[in-house]
Amino acid sequence: MTQSLGNLQERIQLTFKNTSLLENVFVHRSYLNENKTFELTSNEKLEFLGDSVLSLVTSIHLFKAYSDLQEGDYTDIKASIVRTESLAEAASALDLGSYLLLSHGEQKGNGRTKANLLADTFEALIAAIFLEFGFDKASSFIHTNLFNNRLDSIISSKLYLSPKSRLQERAQAIHKELPEYKLLESTGPEHDKQFKVAVLVKNIKLGEGEGSSKKQAEEQAAQNALDVLM
Fold first, then answer.
1. What is the dihedral of CA 115, 119, 120, 124, to 10 degrees?
2. Contact, 103 vs 33, CB < 8 A?
3. pLDDT tens digits, residue range 134-168?
4. Which whole-number Å values give the CA distances from 43 to 24, 46, 145, in the listed order?
5. Does residue 123 have an active-site annotation?
6. Selected catalytic residue, list 47, 51, 76, 219
7. How many other β-carbons are positioned within 10 Å of the β-carbon of residue 188?
């Protein structure tokens, strides 16, 4: 390990008796390709279990804490809080990347700061805590290191809604009109088209977006409009 796992255990205030379980959290499959006799497996199965624990903890919390929301809102909120970027941010705060066992290629490719690797490691750590200490400790870890103020902010600011939905709400509240999306251009062959879209409110262009589909371009245009309006 690049850093002592004792430091991490102090930070999360949990001491593992099964130290191999904690070590397993940080074994990326690329490391095993270069270390065939290494005694531990990759963290992929832990990641799978951690994903399930995280989903259940999130669902229980939303059901209990936000009983006024609809099922569709729960789905969108959960998707926002457990997305790769959110998990990677939580992993970075715990400096999980510094403990990863990676191949030389992954290390040179800045693997310790890759969002997907950090997110996977965070989920693997959830699983290890669940297996060693039980559901309540895993839930507490998730609340402290992922939800904290982040979840309330997502809900209060309605960041779980798509950019198009948020822009529609804002346009209706301020201008009493719906945003209008106009295709500016489409380029490339049929199998690899790129679309450029503008979004307007009261015939005033607020943003443009590009993407490999009209929907993607519209969402990007809406997000750019929201950035301008903030």
1. 150
2. yes
3. 999 999 999 999 998 678 777 777 777 778 887 88
4. 6, 5, 20
5. yes
6. 51
7. 10
Q: Are 226 and 166 in contact, with CB atoms under 8 Å apart?
A: yes
| Res 227: pLDDT | 80
pLDDT at 3: 59
CA–CA distance from 18 to each of 54, 68, 131, 179 (Å)?
Answer: 21, 41, 10, 56
Number of neighbouring beta carbons within 10 Å of residue 36: 6
Nearest CA-CA partner of 186 in 160, 217, 225: 217
> Tens digit of pLDDT for each residue in 192-209?
889 999 999 888 898 899
Beta-bridge mates of residue 154: none
- Residue 2 pLDDT > 60, yes or no? no
Residue 174: predicted pLDDT: 80
Longest CA pairwise span in the chain (Å): 66
Distance CA 23, CA 223 (A): 40
Give this prediction's pTM: 0.73
Residue whose tokens read 């929301």: 69
**Identified catalytic residue from 23, 120, 123, 219:** 123
Q: Is 110 helix (H, G, I), strand (E, B) or coil?
A: coil
Quote the CA–CA distance of 58 and 164 in Å, as a whole number: 25
